[in-house]
Amino acid sequence: MRVQVLTTVPRVELEKDLAELAGEYEMEWSLDEVGRAMRTFIMVSKEGHCLTDLLFRARSQGLPVDVVGVVGNHETLRDVAEFYGVPFHHIPVTKETKEAAEAELLGLVDELGVELVVLARYMQILSESLCEKLRGNVINIHHSFLPSFKGAKPYHQAHARGVKLIGATAPHPCSRAAITGHEEGKEPT
């Protein structure tokens, strides 16, 4: 849950009070400043439209993030990252190298002080171990067709069925709800 407050209470006092309350209810919490640019990694595969949009918005200050790197499991989008002056890290992933690739990613996350990982058409399923280590700090951007149009060509399926409006979602990718796009049996919001 995210709560935004405007207060005249000094930060030190607010942190102390929140720590007491959180301790009483065994809550995990953090306090941050609104609008502070989070140190962000963007993970990609071969499709560049999400990456290009995110990098453009970050550069034009339309998105409060500090993109410290792009990680790709293919080299395809290196030129896009370099055009925007963002370091590109190629970490290939196969069944045999997945564990080592995820360890390399976590090393970069720690080394660069990454606070947020954005999956922007990253076409790999994250392991449970990686999800646990990135818990709360990773989001997945994808079309809002799930679960209605599953598979490799959801746009084609939607067009064939006459869909006129397309949206997007950005769920935390390490939950069952993220896999289907929303909780099964409930309408998406």
Describe this structure in words.
This protein has 7 helices and 6 strands; from the N terminus they run αβαβαβαβαβαβα. The chain has a single domain, classed as Formyl transferase, N-terminal domain (Rossmann fold). 18% of the residues are buried. The protein has a 6-stranded mixed sheet, sandwiched between helices. The C terminus is likely disordered. By secondary structure, it is an alpha/beta fold. It is globular. The two termini are 16 Å apart.
Describe the structure in brief:
With 189 residues, this protein is α/β, with parallel strands linked by helices.
Number of strands: 6
CATH-defined topology:
Rossmann fold
* Domains, number: 1
- Oligomerization state: single chain
Q: Can you tell me the CATH superfamily?
A: Formyl transferase, N-terminal domain
SSE order, as H and E? HEHEHEHEHEHEH
Q: Order of strands in the sheet with the most strands?
A: 3-2-1-4-5-6
pLDDT average, as an integer? 82
CATH class value? Alpha Beta
How would a crystallographer describe the biggest sheet? 6 strands, mixed
- CATH architectural arrangement: 3-Layer(aba) Sandwich
Helix content: 25-40%
Q: Which class best fits the helix and strand makeup? A: alpha/beta
Please state roughly what percent of the residues sit in beta strands, choosing from under 5%, 5-15%, 15-25%, 25-35%, 35-45% or over 45%: 15-25%
What gross morphology would you assign? globular
* Structure annotation, total helices: 7
